[in-house]
Amino acid sequence: MNRLKNFSLGKPGYTPIPSIQLLIKSLFTEYDLDKVTSPWLNYADQYLWLSRSSLSLYLIAKLRFDLTRSKSINIFLPDFFCNEALSLVRTNDINLYFYNVNSNLEPIKESVYNLLEHSIPDIIIQVHYFGENFDCSFLRNTANKYHSWFVEDATHMIFPQGNVGKVGDFILYSPYKHFPIPNGALLVIPKSKLTDSINFKHLLKNLEDIQSSSSRSSQTQTLLKWIIKRIIQNIVQNRSVLSSNISIGNQHDNINPSYVSSCGTRVYKLSFRILFNLYPSFSQLVHRKRLISFKIYQALSKINNNYKDQSSNYITHMIPYSNNTTDFFQILKIQETIWSKFPTLFWPDLPPEVLANPSCHKVAISRTMNTLYLPIHISITDSQINAFLATVDRHRSKNSP
């Protein structure tokens, strides 16, 4: 993984940026939380807002402990997963077991069966990577058979699509990844027999226990820093998305105990106010993301003729770019002028258990090493897209035979 750290082109711009007008307006806006939350919910769903989705996973694990009274619990999750997102569940009484995914990022059944020979899962996680709606039937049935809880990780989805949100016992969303807000993740619990057994008062007590360790002054400082940074990004014309680099790891879920202390577990009211002001234009924002994706796929197809446009299939969070070559990094260096015009990263920051066993996790490691990702968000402007397209055209003409 050291090769990734040595390949850098500048400063990345991964996340949406609110306009100064939106920021000022949102400082004084009253909001309706149920209305803001409604696009992610089905009828009778329970929900809880948290600062980051890593906390959602932590609370689910705490709930499982409370209901089973077990000394330890087992979590099954894909090997293609962000290590930072697991920091709060890395405790002595939680065992993490990583099942393999195939080249399409679908669970490999044989890998799950192998894990089941040694451990019974309390929680099973499946990820809807990059905003795509994955078939959850196999893991859902497995969870039913072993009385496990099934968690849909839909943090890459701007809004639920298809059956997402209708299969899992818990669904994780991360609006802060898709909208220009300082924090805000959503834990959704669909109406079922499980919700009848959950002690929501105890759930909130667990939340308050974490919150009590957080300093209000440090939370305020964190929010002020976020506001000042976003104002500066608006003022500077050539903001971060035009001066980008290739980065490594998870650009959003940089969660650890120190983060919880500085930011807390609850969502800033500013996040809700911004979302409430954006609510009338949610459909336009989705259309905007599709349009950006379409143009980026067009550009990538000029670099690699085998590249397929997926923009019409789902609302993508990140676009993967890979090249069937024995030295992907050599290709990237040749294409350096292209990637200097757009935010890019290698993703995810794999768990150490996965990296330590490359023979068992070939697909996850290979995909991390040989795929570049382009985050797609609503703050990317037409001029920035056009600059990227022009750079691709110049590179193509210069390097064509």
Question: Keywords, please?
Answer:
alpha/beta; Aspartate Aminotransferase, domain 1; 2 domains; 401 residues; 17 helices; disordered N terminus
Structural commentary:
α6 (137-145) links the parallel β4 and β5 (149-153). The chain has 2 domains: 2-16 and 235-263 and 279-399, Alpha-Beta Complex (Aspartate Aminotransferase, domain 1), CATH 3.90.1150.10; 28-212, Aspartate Aminotransferase, domain 2 (3-Layer(aba) Sandwich), CATH 3.40.640.10. Helices cover 42% and strands 13% of the residues. It has helices spanning 2-5, 20-26, 33-37, 53-68, 109-116, 137-145, 193-197, 200-212, 216-235, 257-263, 269-278, 282-303, 328-334, 336-339, 352-355, 362-370, 382-399; strands at 46-50, 73-78, 94-99, 123-127, 149-153, 170-173, 185-189, 246-248, 318-322, 344-346, 371-375. Strands 1-7-6-5-4-2-3 form a 7-stranded mixed beta sheet, with helices on both faces. It is globular. The model is unreliable at 1-12 and 237-263 (pLDDT under 50). The protein has 401 residues and is α/β, with parallel strands linked by helices. The protein has 17 helices and 11 strands.
